[in-house]
Amino acid sequence: MNDLNSVDLSPEAAWSRFRTLLADHLDGMPAGHSLVLACPHADSDPVPPCLQFYGWDDETVRCEVLADEYLAEHRRWTSEGRALLEQFGFAPPPSLPHTARRDDEPVNWFVDRPRRYADQLADAAVRVLRSVWGVPHPSFLELDGDLCGPVIEDRFGASSTDPEDAPPSDPVPFDPLRPVRTSGPEARLEIIEQTLLHILGFVPHPDEDGDYPFRLGPAWLYLCPTPEAPFVQILAPLAAGVTDEARALSVVNDVNRRWPHVKVLLDEDRIVATIDVTVVPFVPQHVADMLAVMEKFAGEAAEHLRAGLGARPYLDAFGEPTPECDAGDGTDEHGGPVIPEALRAIAEAVWERGADIDVEEVLNACGHDRTRVVRFLDVARECELSALDRTLDDTDPRVAASAGLDARVWRTTSALLTSAHRRLAADRVDGPTRSSGSQLDLFGTDLAGGTGDSLFD
Q1: Residues 6 or more apart whose Cβ sits within 8 Å of residue 206
Q2: pTM for the whole thing?
Q3: Measured distance CA(266)–CA(262) in Å, rounded
Q4: How far is Cα 406 from Cα 391, in angstroms, rounded to an integer?
């Protein structure tokens, strides 16, 4: 016998566990199968008070609760009990004599629900069993019907049906609208990753804290599981380098008033935004909806917030913390190459638009300064080599895939800077020229018709 069949488990914990198992059971119960949950009964009961679930078809489950005519007098429904059933959507049976009823008319209280709302049926069953019929613990229940599935297996330790005789069960397809009651942190992580795969098309590699970082629209976001709390947190790092705390608090309060679904926080010299999404039950679409809210917030409010505080972005286009300052040796505080803000802006544009960038945009970012273009090109090539090194990580293919994307962005950035350098070189030799088109000739001849000066001239 396991936990569910032992009264040593506290009633609250036992009923919570039973509710989860019942919801999972109903969600996957094959069409045509039934499950009966019967209460302990006395000799005075015509039949044991019970609830019956029936797999109506592949989409719908019906739940029936005994009507008064099948219950002993002391078990009959009070006004409070009827109100409880109606609260959960139960319809009463027709008040007609047996002779006037059609064969297909229900004789008990009943409700039909799509399988994705199996958790609501499980909630209703537990409320009726505990609050109305006074069952103190799920171990007192008697189970009958097609004895296979999560509830039966967990109650008796094994299925009462021979596995060879049990009908094959197909895995339940992912449905973003289906509420899911997870049995623990591991099950919650599984549905979180399914949700991210549905939204992004891939599952991001979790960081050392177990959070999932990914880029959505203009911003880097984190989806943070919280095993000790009934929610997941969406976190958006917004700004770093805040120096005026009083001004920052005023700006944060103003943003919080204008974006009620987002909570903006000041943490030392950094500003982050969070949204907490309840996961009891877990509804993937709720996470998708709140990610859309955070994406909209990051696109519309984050830049204004940083400008109002004179702060820098918390993360760059590749999800790395922006450096506070140059360490004096050409590296940032993490030992990586210092990426100037102007170069960072070019790389972010490449990330969002690919190579569809006008040469003038690159030159403007570099201030039409040939020396700066060469310096940016050196940094971009160093970043590309660093990303290529990370593609050799054989511990997780997702890390290598992400590094490959970074390498392609830096390779394109280097090509853009090369074309910008060629333009400046041509202007120096032949005077200023302008391309008749708006696209860069990334890998062709220079704009003056020659091969252009060497980068090392």
Answers
A1: 212
A2: 0.46
A3: 13
A4: 10
